[in-house]
Amino acid sequence: xxxxCVDPIAVGAQIVTALQVMVAREIDVNNNxxxxxxxxxxxxxxxxxxxxxxxxxxxxxxxxxxRQLVRAKIERLVQNICExxxxxxxxxxxxxxxxxxxxxxxxxxxxxxxxxxxxxxxxARQIPPDTGGEDFSEFARLTPSVxxxxxxxxxxxxxxxxxxxxxxxxxxxxxxxVKLMSGIILDYTDGGR
Length: 193
Prior knowledge:
Blueprint: H1 8-26, E1 33-42, E2 53-61, H2 64-85, H3 104-118, H4 137-140, H5 172-189
Antiparallel strand pairs: 1-2
Helix pairs in contact: 1-2, 3-5
């Protein structure tokens, strides 16, 4: 008799779908935003409507203004869907680390050092922004900063993700990293080259 209760699975499913529609239709595509519902737990038997459903998600954006905009939209969306279904809800929204912002001026100053130290322009390249979480961003909030990614994957490993059980760092990369950081610091404190 599902008409005698609120089905939290149905409500949760509506929220998951509505979040994706919100990103696709309410967020400017030039303001990168990713919402991933990576956890959805409910029920213990196939023929029993559970009392509750628990969803967990991660939200990735660039910039504080975008973070606050997305948060307000999510709060509105969850409240409205739950009210329409007469479902009680609790929304725990934690703002984690911000996105990393590479200071363009500082990056322009250190690129010649990177290219010289690595042996050519082809070894130092800028990559497009991504939405990976990185606590280095907290330093960049305090002072102009640039985060460098150093390729340390052993050639025989092929390709793997950084945060995966198959990731292994080639320790020879440590010396390259120390050389780069030391060289950049020396060039930068000496007025650059």
